[in-house]
Amino acid sequence: MSSTTTTTTFSPPPIAFDAVLDDYTDRIGIDLTRQPLAAQSSDAIVDLLQDKAKAFKDDQEENRKLIDYLGPFVHVLRALPSMVLVSGDDNVAVSA
To answer: What predicted TM-score, i.e. pTM, was given to this entire model?
Structure first.
């Protein structure tokens, strides 16, 4: 007696899937079937996401350099109001 094993996988009926996509397009206003990633392989999508993550990291590093550079200026500008005193007769005095 021979035994056979069958495997079944579930995939949604195309009609139901199309209805969900149409509903999404109606509600959100974005047709997912027309998006650039819809025609890409999963490897291409992963590569794209990795490129975007690297660009984001590079931008963060550049922003950190700018913040480190501007930090001392911001501290000085923040301290200016407490260093300059204006008297009632519009005379300006710098406190030491």
So the answer is: 0.36
